[in-house]
Design a protein that fits this description.
- The chain is an alpha+beta fold.
- The chain is built from 18 helices and 34 strands.
- Strands 3-7-1-16-13-14-15 form a 7-stranded mixed beta sheet. A 5-stranded mixed beta sheet has the order 11-19-18-17-12. A 4-stranded mixed beta sheet has the order 22-32-33-34, sandwiched between helices.
- β26 (516-520), α13 (529-541) and β27 (548-551) form a beta-alpha-beta unit.
Amino acid sequence: MNDLTPTREQRTAALEGMGCKRKRVEDARFTQGKGNYVDDLKLPGMLHGDFVRSPHPHARVKSINSEEALKVPGVLAVITAETLKTVNLAWMPTLAGDVQMVLADGKVLFQNQEVAFVVATDRYAADDGINKVVVEYEPLPVVIDPFKAMDKDAPVLREDLVGKTSGAHGPRKHHNHIFEWTVGDKDLTDAAFRKAEVTIKEMISYHRTHPSPLETCQCVCSFDKIGGELTIWGTFQAPHVIRTVVALIAKLPEQKIHVISPDVGGGFGNKVGAYPGYICAAVASIVTGKPVKWVEDRIENLTATSFARDYHMTTEIAATKEGKVTGLRVHVLADHGAFDACADPSKWPAGFFNIVTGSYDFPTAHLSVDGIYTNKAPGGVAYRCSFRVTEAAYCIERGMDILAQKLGMDPAELRLKNFIRKEQFPYHSALGWEYDSGDYHTAMKKMMETVNYAGLRSEQATLREAFRRGETREIMGLGVSFFTEIVGAGPSKNCDILGIAMFDSCEIRLHPTGAGTARVGTKSTGQGHETTWAQIIATEIGLPADNIMVEEGNTDTAPYGLGTYGSRSTPVAGAAIAMAARKIKAKAQMIAAYKLEVHEGDLEWDIDGFRVKGLPEKTMSMKDICWAAYNSVPPGMEPGLEAVSYYDPPNMTYPFGAYICVMNIDVDTGVYKIRRFYALDDCGTRINPMIIEGQVHGGLTEAFAIAMGQEIRYDPEGNVVTGSFMDFFMPTAVETPHWETDFTVTPSPHHPIGAKGVGESPNVGGVPAFSNAVNDAFSFLGSTHIQMPHDYWRNWKAAKSLGVFA
């Protein structure tokens, strides 16, 4: 080797593969204003659509008069439910097995529900038109409180379901009931509680919030009457699913539907399902023969598109006096709004909430969930979490803190006593999951040592004594949170949407010059797929990441995939990418053996090519193999170097983390100060540490927003009172704390590259850390549980209720 020969380290670094802090290639266009979003699309003759929306949360629609609207210059059509009935599109199926009105059919069920769709030559004319549509309503009694939805005298909300005693997920026990879902051993759990030395029971509510992505939901639909083809550009997290849904609803041949998802300005679960705007824009294009654009505004997004959470969890834990947990019992009242439009896998009406046993070795547990209808917007999406996992994590993490308080134990020590041990993996939980790998004690102890947990507790004790003496009006809380998430939906044995297994896919095609194109069934909404997918390929097949172009979001070119949400991209699509690359590498090895005149078994992989075992100077680089693949392959082999992989995972993956929030609260004003927030995540193999850190920062910021003020709140009459950013807390750089990140690495044993996923984890673990900090701060004053969100006003009210102003 001469001085100019690259070292192994230099060759590895040149690839910018897994483990490299490669800069996001997407940012070159985003930072220069060259992103290509739906609203940037302008087609010849394009029309615009906008909705007439209901001011009432529950009312009968007596009449709709569009005469004056049609006189507005530029208004071409007003579409109502009656119009849609002529093409059998007045109702559409939801991903949860329910049906949903596209436009109000006889009545409205939530405020700002879509009533009519006005089509005009521009957005301004459409807006003028909707203000001229006259709708006569007959207000009806409202159900907003989920705890009153199943009262004997509660009004019937879904008149289309009258007389139906069962739904998609089994029997219904009330006219406003959707399903009851149970899992676990009830008898064994009840027995554990009868024998328990210590028990706790608390109603823990996770309030309704909203993903509120930077870019709202929108689409452009263009129907070609000659070819009978429909092209839809939209803000879709799962383009192939949208194509299939449209084919089922509109009865169009699926091969004549083209769905394109360009750059998307955030998704967070809000852009998984189908909305009335998509259907109405498509119908309007079919009727007019022109492209039709629909773009919602912020108020519409917050009040009418898919919400998140709204879970009310009665939580019970049984334990010994020494703090060893012996049983868990949880009942959830799940508020689904006017329609069951959750984007959960078909067999899981409450998502993966049965991860509620968390990181703890519960010998037995039982869970029951009742889904109910109310006069609120439908949804229940996985807002920066896997399906209902953040609700489950909040439930068990608050429960463990409440148990620690009752036992007089430190919350961290209680967790250490009950963690699943490293040697127990793969671990079968009491509620049916098989955790793949974990090292919880190591992660927790690293967190405690890094932040000097013992020192913080000592400081807290000193401050509490000063408070009791009247020397300060500040209290201090330590919010410990340890979560295990379940992501990577998912295995076809238990996960599907609309009957389609939740696999994912990748097609890799290498070109003669050593460059390549990868087409993947996911869709980035800010995760950096164009960067990280190329890194996986770079490591697997030895070509620089800069030589790999990643394409997503076009159903005409990408292989069928189930999209991006619930932290499934890396666990499922990342695996498909690795498996496709390995198929290519296997063929490349045959080509290299032929060119080097050795047997395949005589070759070994060496960073960016193959070398002959025992003869390290006899090599063939992957770049040279690419050229050979197009001119001198072995006899009988097809030319070219490409592969497709559809990956059906054998199991979910289970990332975990240890978080702590250090917070001070002024009891006289309720004002809080986040002094420190430390987040340790274990997501298995780390593909790009810089992108992981960015994902954690973003997720923690959303967790901060949710825990400390963000809420979709209704008044008793059903009016949304937080329907704009004037009232809906959206933290800026001013309010957002400093984030301190750390990690351990426990690879998934069944994943091809050992990766687990990380994008959702900081939201899952962050919310209970913030809430536990607030509750820990107030606990010495006699408080057991204070519900979220913890804004200044609620903190002040909590202080007042505890008598600190006496």
